[in-house]
Specification:
Length: about 160
């Protein structure tokens, strides 16, 4: 079953890439790369994107949503202009990344992955980003913050023009 209109809204170049997957044996095994192609283009997966992937690959819509929901790297909302990435790998976790993550959510008044009302910020986590000696680590727009404590969060946000 599908959710949306018959009109394709995916860009033509994306439709062409996905059509390459159609008709292959077990086309549902191409679901992950297909969803990655769409997410790379749009930054997230909307219901309509999922519907179009289902139709283009001739895979049931429920199967597409099941796969997309299973993997943490798929987003269902557009990220904010500044995506705040908090490493929650083991080294960062044991040094308090969870409290840093919660403080960002509290300061911005959002849930994980949910953009702020002005669309400027969103908060997400990542596995080890390869800077364990600097744990806990926060990355925003290629800028890396080291040894971050919850009380550093307002100053970090201020670097990107945020004021409560
Ligand atoms: S666990 Fe965070 S940088 Fe390695």
């Amino acid at each position: 079953m599908s959710c949306c209109s018959e009109e394709y809204t995916l860009k033509e170049k994306i439709v062409e890439k996905l059509q390459d997957f159609r008709g292959r044996d077990r086309s549902d095994s191409y679901l992950i790369p297909a969803l990655q192609i769409v997410q790379e283009e749009y930054g997230y997966l909307s219901r309509q994107h999922l519907d179009e992937v289902a139709r283009l690959l001739s895979v049931p819509y429920a199967r597409v949503t099941g796969v997309a929901s299973f993997y943490q790297f798929f987003n269902f909302q557009p990220a904010g202009e500044y995506e705040i990435i908090i490493c929650t790998g083991t080294a960062c976790h044991v040094r308090g990344a969870g409290a840093v993550f919660d403080r960002f959510l509290e300061e911005l008044g959002v849930e994980p992955e949910e953009p702020t009302e002005d669309g400027k910020f969103s908060v997400t986590d990542a596995r080890c980003v390869g800077a364990c000696s600097k744990a806990p680590v926060v990355i925003i727009e290629e800028k890396v913050y080291s040894h971050v404590a919850p009380d550093d969060v307002p100053d970090i946000l201020a670097d990107f023009g945020y004021s409560p």
